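Sharing a chain and its predicted structure for anyone who wants a worked example. Both blocks are below, sequence first, tokens second.
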Amino acid sequence: MTQQLAFPFPEKSKKKLLGPLSPQQERALERVASSSSEYVIGIDEVGMGCWAGPVVVAAVVLRKDWDHDEVVDSKRITHKKRMDALCKHILPNAELTCVLSQPNTIIDKEGIRVVVDRLTEGCALFCRRRFPRTFVVLDGDLPVEVDGSVTRVVWMPKADVIVTAVSAASILAKVTRDLYMKEQAKLYPGYGWETNVGYHSKKHVWGLENMGITPLHRRSYKPVTAYARAKPGSSW
């Protein structure tokens, strides 16, 4: 059941999960709540720590007073629940969505932080075209400029738990990337991507040790670099 709540206060289940809000989180939420826009742009990324595959950044625009108890941080729910939340609640209620990604080759060339910041700004600019006065809310401690400014950009730890739009963005990004990596598992069997979706796991390590690196592996990441040196030849 959807709960109409006065932003910035999260639903009770999120409060219990998170604990008391920090002063930084309180200030950030007050800034968003005081804006004249009825909406909020939530942005989150998935795949920064992966050994293989792209990084994905998603944005979701929702009304500030919209909430749902099944729209939570993507890391805390199963793939099935993420799919249900996306199809049944997020997409039907989102005013706008945006998904951008970059492959492992660009990550290797430019660095993951540069790539994620660029994708984040791209998502924000896309959403700001239709919602120009709307705050962008990001998860984490690092600011990201949007068109050369941090005006109406808010960043805070655990935003993917506290702010429903960021939770929704985390689910959209996670579902998008996971589905892609599950498809790639069919092309590159033996690395366990159908379950680990490119992250570290025993199966992934086994694949690197026995078959070498694939065209989707991030060669700039130290664990992958080590296996590339140990086993320079590859069947791919």
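Comments welcome. The two ends are 49 Å apart (CA to CA).
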